[in-house]
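Course assignment 3, question 2. Fill in each field.
Student: A.L.
Task: Predict the tertiary structure for the chain below.
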Amino acid sequence: MFASGHRDLPFQADVSGTWWQLNAGGTRQFGGNTARYANPGYQRSFAGNRFDARDGKPGVRWNW
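Answer field:
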């Protein structure tokens, strides 16, 4: 159950079946302590409840 400000909301997920996923990532250094990165991903089911999913995580990292 999820809770909202007014009432509980039922949540149900079917994660049965098989799928594959592909993830990649890269980082590029800028200067001595700053880097930019990106991590894209893709997922797809083999059969059954067919789905396609994409995600990505871009960002900037600063080390001190």
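Instructor remarks: The beta strands are 2-3, 8-9, 19-23, 26-30, 34-45, 52-62. The two ends are 41 Å apart (CA to CA).
Grade: pending
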